[in-house]
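seq:
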Amino acid sequence: MTEKKTVLVTGVGRTAGIGAAVVRRLAEQGWATAATYWHPYDDRMPWGSDDGAKDADLAIEADLSDPGTPARIFDQVESTLGKVTALVMCHAESVDSSILTTSVESFDLHFAVNARATWLLIKEYGTRHAVPFGEGRIIALTSDHTVHNLPYGASKGALDRITLAAAREFAEMGITANVVNPGPNDTGWMDEELKKHIVQATPLGRLGVPSDSADLVAFLCSPAGGWINGQLLKSDGGISG
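struct:
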């Protein structure tokens, strides 16, 4: 019997989110799944929290603003499920504010979660990597929205650069590293007016949903996706075209 590969998915706080969709999709494909969540973040958002990580084989509550957290996550995953083959980062701090209204505290928290934690997770993955050449996968979810969303967009831009650097720096280990931009995604944060606007602006005439991103992530994690490396891929129905 073939041993299951293990995927670590961060940011699986809500059932309606992209992270939860990724966990479900990869579990269907036979992966052992570990998921992190941080309910204090979702609890202060309008949508609240639920048990988004319930479908994972291992669920870990993780405050990614703490620089010691990534190492602890990997310790727990390795002791329970084994070495991590794929790292999929869906975590985010996202609080709307503009150039004029962003506080220093909010700016620093966004960069701690979205940029620094991404670097530290990738660092742990690279340090501990022990799977066959060509099987390793790093995937990060990003956003290109910055207007009135300054700290989120700026920190996601840093996430992009950090992740794509791994495509070159980890070349000798045969690890691919890619970034996925899902565009506006219907995860419960849009009002009806915004939904209507996005549908009208999207060439395919519908909203993006978490399963769209999960399908792309699953392909990138598969052997068939192994030739895609060092790319920022847009899975947004053409709205950015």
